Amino acid sequence: METLRDNLWIWGHDAGCHHSGAGLQWKIPGTNTMGPVEGAEYLGIPNCCRVVFEGRPKPPFDAESEKLRSFRKVVWSVIGDTSSSRNNDGADDLDDVLRQAELFPNVTGGILDDFFRLETKDARMTPERLQEVADKLHAAPRPLELWLVYYAALFEADYSKYLEKVDVVSFWSWDSKQLAQAEENLEKIISMTSGKKHYAGCYLYNYGDCCELTDDEMNFQLDLYLKFWKEKKIDGIIVCSNNIADTGVHAVDIFRDWNARHGGETR
Q1: How many CB atoms lie within 10 A of CB 246?
Q2: What are the Cα distances from residue 23, in Å, to 13, 111, 148, 180?
Q3: Torsion sign over Cα 244, 97, 139, 193
Q4: Does residue 119 carry a pLDDT above 90?
Q5: What is the average pLDDT across 117-144?
């Protein structure tokens, strides 16, 4: 029987990238030298979403996949965040994700980060291309899953023609206002995408408001996600991220204590 910890994933970016370049806007304290492997070990997380940020890493991903061998499962970035310009205008890294799955047996899927642009609310891929991506992942020698990131701010538009094509929806609350509505919003996305797998995105830092999460906010989301997991409403939790793990923010300590107390629970 799988435990809660078995279904924890780390959101993996290059070490230091949230303290430089596009990441400077978030005003994260401290420094970050932990990569995805080190951050996951520190937080007690066995799985990894390895996602491109500001275009890094670049294909081929072989060297990075070698570093990720210790993870139980890995999903690789098909498109990275919006600052990853090589993934704009319909371009993606699908071919290399498929190749990684052939080379590394712990690669189980591909993920679409920032698939819907929050500023313009449009998609970074046509429905036809998204279907091709899903079909190629499903037709791999080991069938692979297609994951997608969905934010609370996206509810105002109808993305059903895209959501129906993916296997896994990860849901994220970007700021304090959205986090306060997380229970209602999680119920909503689960209802909208019945039959899909669902993961709750758990931030260790308040990126939307550019400040640390309060202890109450951190405890609230952890209690909520544990409740939803125990009730089999979600399949697991994605923790963002290794880039926060060693910065000294208190939410990290709260998460590690919570994981130590609840990680071994089953449902």
Answers
A1: 17
A2: 11, 21, 21, 24
A3: positive
A4: no
A5: 95
pLDDT tens-digit profile of 197-224? 999 999 999 999 999 999 999 999 999 9
112's tokens: 């679409």
Of 245, 243, 265, 266, the residue nearest 255 (C-alpha) = 245
Beta-carbon contacts of residue 217 (< 8 Å; ≥ 6 apart): 176, 179, 206
Whole-number Å distance between alpha carbons of 267 and 265: 7
Closest to 199 measured CA to CA, from 149, 249, 126, 250? 149
Taking the C-alpha atoms of residue 158 and residue 150, their distance in angstroms, rounded to an integer, is: 12
Residue 120 pLDDT more than 90? no
What's the full length of the chain, in residues?
Answer: 267
End-to-end CA distance of the chain: 8
Split at pLDDT 50, 70, 90, the class of 22 is very high
